[in-house]
Write a structure and sequence with these properties.
The structure is a single chain. Helices cover about 20% and strands about 30% of the residues. By secondary structure, it is of the alpha+beta class. The longest helix has 13 residues, at about 25-40. It folds into two domains: about 1-95, Alpha-Beta Plaits (2-Layer Sandwich); about 105-244, Pseudouridine synthase I, catalytic domain, C-terminal subdomain (Alpha-Beta Plaits), CATH 3.30.70. A hairpin with a 2-residue loop joins strand 8 (about 165-180) and strand 9. It is globular and about 55 Å long.
Amino acid sequence: MRNILIRLSYNGTAYHGWQVQQNAKTVQETLQDAVEIIFNKRESITGCSRTDSGVHANEYYCTLRTENQIPCERLVNALNGNLPFDIAVLSCAEVPLEFHPRYDCKEKEYIYKIWNSEIRNPFYLNTHLHYKYQLDTEKLDKVSKQFIGTHDFTSFCAAGGSVEDKVRTVKNFSVERYGNEVIMRVSADGFLYNMVRIMVGTLLDVSSGKIDGDSIPQIIESKKRENAGVTAPAHGLYLNRVIY
């Protein structure tokens, strides 16, 4: 038995997230289909994270357990030849059988992309949030630093999350502007259900004046979802980096 670590990227627009679901097209199922074509056998694939419908990944890891002896360099080309163009396998490497792509992860980084202009960019449809009101990125960058640290992030977890322990350590948060493009970047040892999207929505509500920019610590302390901001749309979110 081999345990193969696959690094891939995908545009999540056409998919209902990573996880296999009934009557819904997912990235995991699409990858399993490609593996089955190559190996003539349905194999077990385990992902590093669940991503929501419409969320993208610049870097995503999963493990494939198989007895097939195809070399990793050949597997990369074989998979890419059988995957749709919105999913790409970047590399493969053999890892110990006990390696788990989720539980062995030390840190993840997400980015959220915003097209900040009165006029929409048609080429950024489904890849950026179009936000037409001017964002003060210097102010939002300072506000975002209040998320850094080890906290109970219950206020930033959507209903439906199954995890009981909601304490996470946010290691960095930044907001940067590149012309009309605004990038929010956050890294942590783990994330709750919709946590990044609620953080982004909260910063947007700070920008619009709905939430006081100095109130983030109080919102965290309250442990009440209704005190945080809106949940930002999924299509601006990317799993950007996974660290083992």
